[in-house]
Amino acid sequence: xxxxxxxxxxxxxxxxxxxxxxxxxxxxxxxxxxxxxxxxxxxxxxxxxxxxxxxxxxxxxxxxxxxxxxxxxxxxxxxxxxxxxxxxxxxxxxxxxxxxxxxxxxxxxxxxxxxxxxxxxxxxxxxxxxxxxxxxxxxxxxxxxxxxxxxxxxxxxxxxxxxxxxxxxxxxxxxxxxxxxxxxxxxxxxxxxxxxxxxxxxxxxxxxxxxxxxxxxxxxxxxxxxxxxxxxxxxxxxxxxxxxxxxxxxxxxxxxxxxxxxxxxxxxxxxxxxxxxxxxxxxxxxxxxxxxxxxxxxxxxxxxxxxxxxxxxxxxxxxxxxxxxxxxxxxxxxxxxxxxxxxxxxxxxxxxxxxxxxxxxxxxxxxxxxxxxxxxxxxxxxxxxxxxxxxxxxxxxxxxxxxxxxxxxxxxxxxxxxxxxxxxxxxxxxxxxxxxxxxxxxxxxxxxxxxxxxxxxxxxxxxxxxxxxxxxxxxxxxxxxxxxxxxxxxxxxxxxxxxxxxxxxxxxxxxxxxxxxxxxxxxxxxxxxxxxxxxxxxxxxxxxxxxxxxxxxxxxxxxxxxxxxxxxxxxxxxxxxxxxxxxxxxxxxxxxxxxxxxxxxxxxxxxxxxxxxxxxxxxxxxxxxxxxxxxxxxxxxxxxxxxxxxxxxxxxxxxxxxx
Length: 659
Prior knowledge:
The protein has 15 helices and 31 strands. By secondary structure, it is an alpha+beta fold. β20 (275-277) and β21 form a beta hairpin. α7 packs antiparallel against α8 and α7 (425-435) packs parallel to α9. It is globular, with a radius of gyration of 26 Å.
């Protein structure tokens, strides 16, 4: 087989970057059936894997110490750390020498992935002439072949090829290098580390050509956070998808109609179903969660606010009934509210009391209390519910300022990780503003100090999703951003702004800012018409959802505070492109416009999804809109930008008239 290769280097027009374009052509076929090629840079400072930090958006941070065992990078004793670039929120991989800070990054040049062959199953090895996805990562191979049998046993033999050491690589077409796998062959007594190595190759056919291009970026950074921020931004600037065309005012009203319609009375309780199947909203099950995927009090507040503003009494009453239900039934003797009510058993499920879920619900009840008070109606029982909860929070705070991930009903510890501590900060800040009681402010600051040292400085953003393990994820970053920004709004101290910026920079790297074609097996789905950009990876190596929609308002506020226009760009991007998983105008065929699915995995270019709606899907899209309207009086970020700078800055001081 002959494979002549032309490789061209030229300045890419990007800061500290070069474009590398490669053309490979088969001119003679031998016994080989398939082939792949790669572009590699040998790391000369050290060939020890642990001497570097690694960054792959949504997949790998530092040494992936907070990743699950099945994630790439968790086991640093492997040789091939390659991952399909469709798994990355942006197709970029960076290596930073820990001692020197010197960094090399390699990324796909253009967002020009096309659809793979749909009749070829990806298994151990296969050939797909249409496949133009690359794999990005690093390797330190031995002079041996490596193939894994179907049950994960490595088959190897010595070869004469001399290996250069540790390198950063772009492999084309792509593959998933040594990936840990579960021991699912129960009858096998093989004691080794079971792994897989899945390849897609191109055919060895005379005349077949590969053409691809990458960008190489180099830099010197004082910290991992600085490197992550700069590598993300330079790649984002080049590959960010165009803004989706959506009318956010109309979308907001459509979403409120969905919530109004599906809120109803179940016996003595009020709420929305836990899950409904699309496209017709057939109810799968009914169960109410205090926050997280259920967001019942949050939706209750939004309903009463909307019903009052739009003069829709039915919507207003449904909102009141939801808040009243939780206040009437959820409080326990310890002061810790119940988290999950099931109307079928007319009682609460034995669900962990997650501190993050507690924060969701209690903030919303406080918001509802303040809204009614400003209308001239004092809801003393709502306030008392918040006070009992706040006092419980202060009482059980650890000496180091942290909180545990989850508690039992009696207040004893159920899950002893502390990484969710930032999630409760914003409530404590806001309840202090309402009451003036210093204990709540002190608790918020103490929690902030722990979060600064651990979540921000140590990048310990994990366990934010209550239905996943205590692993690195996006929502822990989101709630750290909420908490740090609340402390900055309260105190004006630069420390908290620094931490908020750090959390924001981390969190946005989970967002699919680029696009590639995805098919669905469903006749009615938005991805048949729109793209996947704006969706965001949920946990390390996990699926993707629309939760970044919850952050559009805070990124816009961060832009106004810092005057960093990247945050403005990103705020607009997630405010618009997250809508692409919704039937925004009724053209998809869902029973109501505005509906969207919960989540899915599309890294294979075929969507795998439960194809259902959960209340949070709509809540995270309306909540930042309602805040934007309350703060700036508009439904679009672009409309807020038309206000004078002085007026925007004045309105952005949200705590001046909070209580």
